[in-house]
Amino acid sequence: MILPEHKEETANTLEVSCGAQLPGTDLSLRFHLILDVDEIVDCRLRTGFSHRGIEKRAEELTYHQLTSLLSLVDASSGISGELAFCLAVERLMGWKVPERAVWIRMIMAELSRMASHLGWLSRFSAIMGSEAGYHYAERDRDRVLRLLELVTGSRIAPNYVRVGGVREDLPAEFEPRLTEFLHLFKRRYEEYHLLLTENRFFRDRVENLAVLSKEDAYSYGVTGPNLRACGIRIDARKNAPYSGYDQVVFKIPMGRKGDCFDRYSVRLKEIRESVEIVKQAMEALRQGEVLNSPPLGPIPPPGQAYVGIECPHGQLGLFLKSDGTEKPYRLRIRGPSMAHLMALGKVLLGQRISDLPTIVSSFDISMSEAER
């Protein structure tokens, strides 16, 4: 529960409760608002509608079983939880991953990032009244999810990354279908710009709306696209490279003011950069093994490790402590969305109630990841 400083009540004060299902979003989150006419003067965010206790449950499962559980941490990017966990176990064990598996992990992670951003873009377009934007984004997201399903067998919970590599190699039909989509998406990207970025009515509604300052972004621990929209150049793939990201060339999209338009623009440009990363990874892909797994399953020696990766919503950190048994002693996840919820409570103050869905959607918060 986030409790900003309460303002003095007036004759025009009205208490409003929104949620736990906010119209136009997929959040399981309740907003307790105090309005002065239509201005939000107090905002209390109440969570607790989707808590699953993943971190405690992790202590009861073996390392081999945990990948399927951690693919459920973030419903829009199941690969992220699996990858962070496997990197932490591999760091504890000093285990090497085959080169082909490194590139496959990168391809799957970037496709998952594209699917997540396109899913967000469809919801954001619908809230902004752009039915065409909604259908365009859902169309492209479905194509990306089909590629993920072709490789992993699932669209939402892939359970594909393994300690020491990946579960299985890419199917033969994957490369031609991926190449076709990447070629097609270049034109799709221009369509989004024409439809939204260059749309005067769209820009009038989102520019200078809900500005998040650099100072507040730092104070609340904001990461990912929401942080880069404020003009802060931090990306774990560049600042602390993992899984081969130091071997590919890509740009870090940046904003200037930290408003809703910058948050939209950064995510749209990140999709384009993900396309470039996938192209480079496919060119670097060579034949070879995809799994270097311990014969008796992963059993790390006593110790602890921390890994931070760049998931679609921000930086996902995973702390793992081992006592030398087949089950982890402690697993702790630091997801980006809870910090973004706290920053959201700050930027909502002084905004109009009619802008609430637009502002909330612009932060792209995953409640499945915030409430594990």
UniProtKB/TrEMBL annotation:
It holds the Pfam family Complex1_49kDa. It comes from the Bacteria. One of its GO terms (molecular function) is oxidoreductase activity, acting on NAD(P)H. Keywords: Quinone. InterPro entries: NADH_Q_OxRdtase_suD (IPR001135), NDH1_su_D/H (IPR022885), NiFe-Hase_large (IPR029014). Residues 129-292, 298-372 form the NADH-quinone oxidoreductase subunit D domain. The keyword Transmembrane does not apply. This is NADH-quinone oxidoreductase subunit D. It comes from Candidatus Hakubella thermalkaliphila. The lineage of its organism: Bacteria, Bacillati, Actinomycetota, Actinomycetota incertae sedis, Candidatus Hakubellales.
